[in-house]
Amino acid sequence: MAVEGAIATDSVRHTAAVHQGTYAGGLGSWLTTVDHKRIGVMYGLSAFFFFLVGGLEALLIRLQLGSPESTLIDADLYNQLFTMHGTTMVFLAIMPLGAAFFNFIVPLQIGARDVAFPRLNAFSFWVFFFGAVFLNSSFIFGGAPDAGWFGYANLTSAQYSPGIRIDYWVIGLVMLGVSSIAAALNFIVTILNLRCPGMSMMRLPLFSWMTLVTAFLLVIAFPAITVGLVLLMFDRMFGTVFFNPAAGGDVLLWQHLFWIFGHPEVYILLLPALGVVSEIIPVFSRKPLFGYPFVVYSGVLIAFLGFGVWAHHMFSVGLGPIANTVFSAATMLIAIPTGVKIFNWIATMWGGSLRFRTPMLFAVGFIAMFIVGGLSGIMHASAASDLQQTDTYFVVAHIHYVLFGGVMFALFGGIYYWIPKITGRLMHEGLGKMHFWVMAVAFNLTFFPQHLLGLHGMPRRTFTYEAGLGFEAMNMISTVGSLLLGGSILIFLWNLVRSLRRGAEAGSNPWQGATLEWSTECPPPHYNFLTLPRVHSRYPLWEDGGVTSTAPTDEHRLPEPHMPSPSYYPVVLALGILVLGVGGLSRALPVVFLGVAVVLFGIYGWAFEPLERQTHPRRGVGRRSRQEKA
Amino acid sequence: MIPFAGVAALLIVGCGGPFPQSALDPSSDFAWRLHDLFRGIFFWAVVVFLIVEGALLVAVLRFRDRGDGRAPAAGHGNTVLEIAWTLAPALVLVLVAIPTIKTIWDVDRAPSGEALVVEVIGHQWWWEFRYPDLGVVTANELHLPVGETVDVRLTSADVIHSFWFPRIGGKRDVLPGHETHLWFKVDSAGVHLGQCAEFCGLSHALMKMQLVAQEPSEFDAWVEGQLAEAAAPESGPAAAGGELFVTAGCTACHRVAGTPAQGAIGPDLTHVGSRRRIAAGVLDNTRENMERWLRDPQAVKPGALMAVPELDEGQIRSLAEYLAGLK
Fold it and tell me: A517, A109 in Cβ contact below 8 A?
């Protein structure tokens, strides 16, 4: 297996020179960075922090439900907890964890030096970060949102939810939407335009493909919820009546707008995970992905069909038999491309030489549990059958088999797989395996009984249940499982922290990966590739001459590539949006004007920031060099 | 897969019922239709589960790298296989879709012939039941005759709720500004448990109800009783309670037929003494529970809209005595 292409040798030669002083330290350098790798790290750390917050909320929920008629947590706090658990896991944990991978891996995987719009990338991160802090600050100031992550009208109206809890949710989600759309546009342009020579779309690694599809989903889906949120904001702040049936409004308008976003959102969470698994399985089977074009097209098809199924969240609303039939059938169709992916992964393993290192364990665990989530999904796709299951713990079990057993297992696999790319060190295999097995057992212990709870009549979003309904034992098992699940996360955290200092040196390609990100060092130099690579196959590092340099001779090589300058304006602009949000929340006009002023200043400064300011990598990202380049 | 087996074994052994609120124990034509459909889909789910997880397991066991230097097989794909495993799930889906669509149309169609009309009105956090043809109004306890088709019409007085008796059938959302419908025929006498299934605010978990399915003759007797006014207490603490009911302001929200109490905001209390439970299915209808409820409704049901003026223990006792007598 020829790993060493021309690029690898080039890079190695320059490693020593490049590594010293590539990055300036200090808070300022992180605030102003436009480097996709540092932004990726910031996304990853924030996402993991909020994953822990959401997990803690889940543990409190499970402790309350561990026994019937428990008085540990009251109704008010419980409703805040389940609302914020859902909102946090979807918007503040899984989505940004996906964004962390997009940022760190995609430019490396497509042979680019950065994303297409580095400052916009920094802006996306900071708006996300401020939005996340804004949303969670509600716990301290007057209580967190408490109308569910789906925020159904008219419970969210000023009449039925007075106070500012729902305002936190509305404004926070609008901010997160700005971040997501900006990031998505950036990645669409990056993947379409910055692929290195030779990387046709049908040579694009699966993870980058799924990132592209996810970005299109984001751009198309987020406007729908943004419209809904703006209407809701107007209802709450300015007395409009879009969702007030007593005044001629309609509560179902919200449900349509929300789920036109909400169902594609599920695939926004899922597709990056499918991409990760499609990277891990071939590498650890030492075999190319079986049916690459089918896996690509099925991902595109899942995304496309995902826009035509939103009303399957509304089967109990009584839309009538025509709508229920159409949305049932459309939903079932999604099982076909999903099945194709699963069969292709298994076929990739078939005949391979499987190495069960930690990333592979998580990828296989993902398949095993995602199948369960898919099959329970078919039961909900059947509108009539769903009438019994919707809004019960059966659905809670289903979404967790898809989003935890599925997406989170895949993303943990992705962390184990790519962490050496980020830190230069491997995580410990023994601890990784222990993490996997404890998590797999705990996960099933937690969520499998919830299928049965739902079928036996336990509705979701209830802070208590009566003794004598037969729910006691299974809830107890579920709670024990959830505590064990929390323990498995501690094993992971210990492994991660430990690896930073004591992890084995990774070298440049610890797993014998096939794709371009493994052609540069771990961690990669500031500019990723000294000379841009040219690829000649889908698995360039697995073939002799699969990757060559674009610089024909030594004279064509720049001594060091010039990278975009750091900039304060993205974080300033994001801060302006935060101030606007606080102004809207407090309904204080001066704060709103201050926000407008900061936003305008940010946009102006951004637009007229001199382009000639360049940074010499050797002198550090954090310091600006005004030196003109001849 | 080992965890699956472990969990499954655990559940079969250790978590037996009884499950009085279970969707797996149908008791109406509607519930049976959904249950039969579910069983069919479940069968196919198990088949697919066994095949796919089995294939995964075989791949894991058979192709594990044993360090014998075996080279992995070559190959990028196989179009015939791809077509096969696209068509196979499509075929299974057709087998699932046909009964699904049939059931959708069966359960979403108004039945022909006579039906007992019941209006369900959702409130934060209790249920109002009206029988417009019979002139009966009650709360949280729905009486229905066995074997007769019921035409349920649902609306909400405030936010979205969802009407759900798992043994009687699927959910139907209860919406402000829209009337939704359900039709079913209960097939055996007994008490069925239900509760709101759409998150509707603070005490969503405590918005419960009971369905008392009775033989038609018993149901008719119940209707007759409901149409009669409850006997007014002549003397004693109950009479004092009756007076207090008016002077303490209960009448602003509650109705007791044949008395000045004609409020229409809270539950109709004309026959509250005969109900099995109080506070929307949360407490058994005992004297102690009624007193507990009157002492502090929000302690039982957070956010409950019921306002009770300052009452001393004696007043609470006489009020409970009065309400218990409303049969």
Answer: yes
